[in-house]
Amino acid sequence: xxxxxxxxxxxxxxxxxxxxxxxxxxxxxxxxxxxxxxxxxxxxxxxxxxxxxxxxxxxxxxxxxxxxxxxxxxxxxxxxxxxxxxxxxxxxxxxxxxxxxxxxxxxxxxxxxxxxxxxxxxxxxxxxxxxxxxxxxxxxxxxxxxxxxxxxxxxxxxxxxxxxxxxxxxxxxxxxxxxxxxxxxxxxxxxxxxxxxxxxxxxxxxxxxxxxxxxxxxxxxxxxxxxxxxxxxxxxxxxxxxxxxxxxxxxxxxxxxxxxxxxxxxxxxxxxxxxxxxxxxxxxxxxxxxxxxxxxxxxxxxxxxxxxxxxxxxxxxxxxxxxxxxxxxxxxxxxxxxxxxxxxxxxxxxxxxxxxxxxxxxxxxxxxxxxxxxxxxxxxxxxxxxxxxxxxxxxxxxxxxxxxxxxxxxxxxxxxxxxxxxxxxxxxxxxxxxxxxxxxxxxxxxxxxxxxxxxxxxxxxxxxxx
Length: 466
Fold this sequence. Notes:
- It is built from 16 helices and 20 strands.
- It has helices at 2-21, 40-47, 50-55, 93-105, 147-159, 170-177, 193-199, 236-245, 274-281, 285-294, 300-306, 340-350, 387-391, 405-409, 419-422, 460-465; strands at residues 34-38, 74-78, 84-89, 113-115, 118-123, 127-131, 135-140, 182-187, 212-221, 224-233, 266-273, 307-317, 323-331, 354-359, 362-367, 370-377, 380-384, 413-418, 435-444, 447-454.
- The chain has a 20-stranded antiparallel beta sheet, with helices on both faces.
- Helix 9 crosses helix 11 (300-306).
């Protein structure tokens, strides 16, 4: 009986601690459209700035807010009623009230008042702030006449239980499953049109943005940031669309990654099954018409069908007005070269098409302002408007992308941008000068990762804070 009593007491204590640990999260508004969870300690440690670094971000030159439990996750959200807000755990209500009184003394917020066992103030004349001994809720923005409505919303949220809160939402479940010091989840219809419509490109005709959630976990590093994102849906038609995209190719082998010039502006690579790609291209009326015109000069369809493996596009600076581009693609077969005599004959008949055969499977075709050097070097098909780039295909190995080797070989899509070269562009944000590489990569059609990196040894977040 004594042992049973001890076990019962331990279980009750564990249950209380478990309930109390997330009790403040019960105040999260129901059915959020956008939700972000931030583990402050993990962010500070990963970024190499410590909690003191985060404290320097406090508003108005004040100390970091006292009375907030920074060891617990904080949440930012857009509620179902489209209010923007912040939720944090409170460790000491009295100290938090005193911090806001100091802020009021500096004109940052209105005087703190107590009502129905809670503290209230208005920050910057736009944001209603309410808190008790469990949770702090900030909600807005709103005009002065709307503050009473915001107060009612906050009061209702602070009183609700878990089953009626945002903890019961699909977005909260998404956030809990994802990793990273900062996790973002949103319904696509809640994002600005420019983002939602871009992600919806190619979807089935009757698919809606509200059918899809995007979830992103952000991992802060001393010299950069990694964002892992995933698209999720319960719509079978949308899921079928992404499954079809996965059939276009497999994982990148990285055979062209060793030939990226040091001063290249960018490099993009995918693994492509030419047969399946051509099938998808022909579904687009505009692309289908373009291919028909191209096939009058060379057998473009047969070239595309011959591709089987890595396809890479390299962008290099040429002069102040123009950049050079080189496309390289691994070939599974080269029988389209047997049609070269026909290309020459067809160009001569058209009168509007210039065609040259340089020998050794090297060619040129041009009409008007359009020009292309193309051919086959080993097992590689190349196309470029730049004669010099045509001569350099797979000619000299480099170490430009060596540090990204593991990520390249495990991806189906990989895009690298050389920020050190791009920063010479007009209207370049000065703060990006700390970063050297921007990479967008994808393991499949639903997942994509963004990497932002500074030079080796560069502690970018600490430098930015300083």
